[in-house]
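To illustrate the input format used throughout this study, we show a single complete record. The first block contains the structure-token representation of the backbone; no residue identities are included at this stage. The design step must infer an amino acid for every position from geometry alone.
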């Protein structure tokens, strides 16, 4: 018989045996599932540069209400709309 350079797929017995990750038994998924999930109370949210309120998007500089009143982008602060002749009310 001749030896071949490739591994034998039937040698391990099952198709998932080569993987390193193992299935966890008796795991409560409600307790362990939220580790990588979005957290609204995390410290990655900055304060608004105008009013000091917490912003709603990570890496944003202005809250949505101040960005709407000033006509600027909440993420970068670029002026999008000329609001000099507007009578805006953000209620």
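Output of the design step:
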């Amino acid at each position: 018989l001749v030896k071949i350079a490739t591994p034998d797929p039937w040698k391990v017995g099952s198709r998932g045996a080569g993987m390193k990750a193992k299935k966890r038994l008796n795991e409560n998924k409600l307790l362990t599932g939220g580790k990588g999930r979005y957290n609204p109370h995390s410290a990655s949210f900055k304060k608004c540069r105008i009013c000091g309120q917490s912003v709603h998007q990570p890496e944003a500089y202005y809250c949505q209400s101040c960005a709407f009143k000033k006509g600027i982008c909440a993420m970068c602060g670029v002026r999008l709309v000329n609001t000099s002749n507007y009578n805006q009310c953000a209620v």
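Structural context for interpreting the output: Residues 69 and 88 are 7 Å apart (CA to CA). The chain is about 10% helix and 0% strand.
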